[in-house]
Specification:
Elements: E1 3-7, H1 8-22, E2 26-30, H2 46-50, E3 55-57, H3 62-74, E4 78-82, H4 93-100, H5 103-106, E5 116-121, H6 136-140, E6 146-148, H7 153-165, E7 170-175, E8 182-186, E9 198-201, E10 206-210, H8 214-226, E11 232-236, E12 239-241, H9 245-255, E13 258-265, H10 270-282, E14 291-295, H11 306-309, H12 313-324
Parallel strand pairs: 2-3, 2-4, 4-5, 5-7, 6-7, 10-11, 10-13, 13-14
Antiparallel strand pairs: 1-8, 6-12, 9-11
Helix pairs in contact: 1-7, 3-4, 8-12, 9-10
GO molecular function, one term: oxidoreductase activity
Keywords: Oxidoreductase, Thiamine pyrophosphate
Protein name: Alpha-ketoacid dehydrogenase subunit beta
Length: about 325
C-alpha cells in the first residue's frame, strides 16, 4: 500500500500527471496552466514534462477554451480544461449548458463528450470580486452534467482520476481555500465510486450534510458539539449531481435531524433540493425540519467582510442548537 501525505493541491497535480502519463489522449488546457503552472500551481511542471501539445496555454477566452475542448472530445481526446477562477466561468456557460451537457442526448447516445472542467471555487482567500463564487447549483441544475467537489487530498486524487475516465462531462469544483490542507492519500486503492457520499464522522443526534470546503467546518462543529454532549454525524456528499440521496436518507433515519451546510447562498442553493427530497423521503423519521446554513443572497463581499459572509463554526452550531430544540 503506497500511502503518502500531501496537500489537496499536490494530490490534484499528481492525479493530473498520472492521467497524462496513462492516456496520450488526455490534454490540459487553460489560462496560464503551462509555463506558470496555474495560479494555484495545480498544473506545475506538467508542461515541462509533457510538452506544449499536451498542456496548452490558451488565450483569455473561456468560451473558446470550452468550445475547443468539445471539438477535441468529438475527435477522441479527453480534454481537462481549467477555468482560472469560479467567476470567470460564465463566458463559457453557454458552451457548457447548451453544447457540452446536451450533445450526448442530442446524438441519442452515439456521441460522448469526456470533458473535465476544473473550477477553483469558493471564498476564504481574500480575493476581489469574481474570484470567490460558489456557482455549483447552476451546473447541478443542468441535465447532462456531473458535478463533484472533493473535501480532502485522497478524494482530490481519486475523484480527478474518475472524472477523467468518465465518458460524460464532469464539472470538477476545487475548494481553493483548502488547496493547502494535507491528508493521507493511498495512491493504489480507490476509495469508492465517484458519486457516493461518505460518512466523515459517525454520530447519533443530528446529521450535518456538506461538501467541498464546508466539510472541514462541519467536522470542527461536530467536535465542538461533542464537548457539550451532542453526537453529530458528518456526511461528505462529494457529488452535487447526482446526489447520493440514499446515503442522506440512511443517516436522516438514524439521527432524525438534518442540517445542510454549503458555502453558496442558501436561496435556491443545493441545500433546498436536499431539504425537499429528504422531507419527502423521511417525513415520519424526522424530529425537526431540515435546516440550511449557507451564504447570504448578496453579491460576494469585499475581503474584509468574508468572515461575516461565509458560514463558520458559530452559524453551524446555531443551526444544530435550533434543530435539537424542536
Amino acid at each position: 500500500m503506497a500511502v503518502e501525505k500531501m496537500s489537496i493541491a499536490k494530490a490534484l497535480n499528481e492525479s493530473l500527471r498520472l492521467a497524462l502519463d496513462t492516456d496520450p489522449k488526455v490534454l490540459i488546457m487553460g489560462e496560464d496552466v503551462g509555463k506558470l503552472g496555474g495560479v494555484f500551481r495545480i498544473t506545475d511542471g506538467l508542461q515541462k514534462d509533457f510538452g506544449e501539445d499536451r498542456v496548452i496555454d490558451t488565450p483569455l477566452a473561456e468560451s473558446g477554451i470550452v468550445g475547443t475542448a468539445i471539438g477535441l472530445a468529438l475527435r477522441g481526446y479527453r480534454p481537462i480544461v481549467e477555468i482560472q477562477f469560479d467567476g470567470f466561468v460564465f463566458p463559457a456557460y453557454d458552451q457548457i449548458v447548451t453544447q457540452l451537457a446536451k450533445m450526448h442526448a442530442r446524438a441519442l447516445g452515439k456521441v460522448k463528450l469526456p470533458v473535465v472542467v476544473r473550477i477553483p471555487y469558493g471564498g476564504g482567500i481574500g480575493a476581489v470580486e469574481h474570484h470567490s463564487e460558489s456557482p455549483e447549483a447552476l451546473f447541478a441544475h443542468v441535465a447532462g452534467l456531473k458535478v463533484v467537489s472533493p473535501s480532502n487530498a485522497s478524494d482530490a486524487y481519486w475523484m480527478m482520476q474518475q472524472a477523467v475516465q468518465s465518458d460524460d462531462p464532469v464539472i470538477f469544483f476545487e475548494p481553493k481555500r483548502r488547496y493547502w490542507d494535507k491528508g493521507e492519500v493511498d495512491t493504489e486503492s480507490i476509495p469508492g465510486p465517484l458519486h457516493k457520499a461518505v460518512t466523515a464522522r459517525e454520530g447519533s443526534d443530528l446529521t450535518l450534510v456538506a461538501y467541498g470546503p464546508m466539510v472541514k467546518v462541519c467536522l470542527e462543529a461536530a467536535a465542538a458539539a461533542q464537548e457539550e454532549g451532542k453526537s453529530i454525524e458528518v456526511l461528505d456528499l462529494r457529488s452535487m449531481a447526482p446526489i447520493d440521496f440514499d446515503a442522506i436518507q440512511r443517516s436522516a433515519e438514524k439521527t432524525g435531524r438534518v442540517v445542510v451546510v454549503h458555502e453558496a447562498p442558501v436561496f435556491y442553493g443545493s441545500g433546498a433540493e436536499i431539504a425537499a427530497r429528504i422531507t419527502e423521503r423521511c417525513f415520519y423519521h424526522l424530529e425537526a425540519p431540515v435546516l440550511r446554513v449557507g451564504g447570504y443572497h448578496v453579491p460576494y463581499p469585499p475581503a474584509r467582510l468574508e468572515d461575516e459572509y461565509l458560514p463558520g463554526l458559530d452559524r453551524v452550531l446555531d443551526a444544530v442548537d435550533r434543530s435539537l430544540a424542536f
